[in-house]
Specification:
Keywords: Oxidoreductase
Number of helices: 9
CATH topology: Rossmann fold
GO biological process, one term: fatty acid elongation
Radius of gyration: 17 Å
Pfam families: adh_short_C2
Protein name: 3-oxoacyl-ACP reductase
Strand content: 15-25%
Structural class: alpha/beta
Distance between the termini: 44 Å
GO molecular function, one term: oxidoreductase activity, acting on the CH-OH group of donors, NAD or NADP as acceptor
Number of domains: 1
Strand order of the largest sheet: 3-2-1-4-5-6-7
Length: 245
Amino acid sequence: MSRPLALVSGGSRGIGRAVVVRLAQDGYDVAFCYRTRTDAAEAAAEEAREAGARTLATRLDVADGPAVRAFVAEAVDRFGAPAAVVTAAGIARDRPLALMEDAEWESVLRTNLDGTFHLCRAALQPMVRRRAGAFVTISSIAGIHGGIGQTNYAASKAGILGFTRALAKENGRFNIRVNSVAPGLIETDMTAEMPDKAREQHLRRTPLRCLGRPEDVADAVSFLVSDRARFITGEVLSVDGGLTL
């Protein structure tokens, strides 16, 4: 029996890698893209194959629309129309707005928000023809509440939330669901360089008194793309240990 296809951006490390592995364990073939670490991508693909998945790993920049379209076209040609799409690629370039360089603003918006647009747009038509599917965008609690030194990051993630709700309204008639996961502070490469004092302050504000793991986010994604969430669309699921309470 053929397995459904999941497309994942940012699939070589952190949250994206956890999503690749979890969806492979859930019975999907997985096509994912990544920007830099080929060794990490190969390791993620191998772990997915160990779970029984066929894989495609493509190096590209999600801000490059033609490259994303080519990636999706190859995945659809190999595996068929996607059943699930997860936009996990993201970067941060934190700095107070008064000191922020144009390049720091533009790179974050292009990767986080434009990258979400490129992958979802490329995947949408095959899913419309299939009359089924689920998108999960990865936003952030910064997109809900903002963050000091994160005007670029917060703007990109808030944009993803608006994008998610609009896409859900547009495509519900095609039996396509669109939801978002908003992680809090997760143990990834992006957060590894966080100063100890800032980490301690964050933990004191978090009711569960711990950081999340990439697998916590992957579990939420697994639920949202599954039939268990068949009547859920346009929603934002915070995975943050209670930080936004």
